[in-house]
Amino acid sequence: MSNFKFVSYNELDTMNFGKKIASILNKKDIIILTGELGSGKTKFTEGFLSYFGLENEISSPTFTIVNEYNSEKSPIYHFDVYRLEHSSEFYEIGGEEYFEKRNLFN
Fold first, then answer.
1. What is the number of domains present in the chain?
2. Could you tell me which of 13, 67, 6, 69 has the C-alpha nearest to residue 44?
3. Is 43 exposed, middle or buried (0-12, 13-18, 19+ CB in 10 A)?
4. In the predicted structure, residue 19 carries a pLDDT above the cut 60
5. Average of per-residue pLDDT across 24-35
6. What is the H or E stretch that residue 103 is in?
7. Long-range CB contacts (< 8 A, 24+ apart) of 22-25?
8. Could you tell me the residue range of the domain that residue 70 belongs to?
9. Residue 51 lies in a domain
10. What is the mean pLDDT of residues 7-18?
11. Is 2 part of any domain?
């Protein structure tokens, strides 16, 4: 994907952008969102999930590290790893198993 810039002026813009991104992804694509608390990552995810008809199931996985959503097209994993201080902690909690069990890297 080429570089581009998106400016959101409100929550609806962010949600619509998430929905648009969901519509063009392939099954094994991975999206990584980074940003401060309150920067719109969860609103993006709400829009993303709405494309799959899962808008009523969204919750931020702040305390659970990961939420799994089952859509008709593919499972969706929503990780919130801001509390992890080092990438090795992701592996320690079994994070790579989500990718391995769906053969995302094969």
1. 1
2. 13
3. buried
4. yes
5. 83
6. none
7. 22/47, 22/48, 22/49, 22/51, 22/52, 23/51
8. 11-100
9. yes
10. 95
11. no
Q: Mind listing the pLDDT tens digit for each residue in 48-105? A: 999 999 877 776 655 667 778 888 777 788 787 777 888 888 888 888 887 776 554 4
Q: Is residue 4 part of a domain?
A: no
Overall pTM surpassing 0.70 (yes/no): yes
CATH number at 15 reads: 3.40.50.300
Work out the angle between the directed axes of helices 41-51 and 11-24 (0-180°, nearest 10): 50
Give bridge partners of residue 70 from the DSSP assignment. 75
Place of tokens 């969901």: 22
Q: Is 74 a member of any domain?
A: yes
34/75 Cα distance (integer angstroms): 21
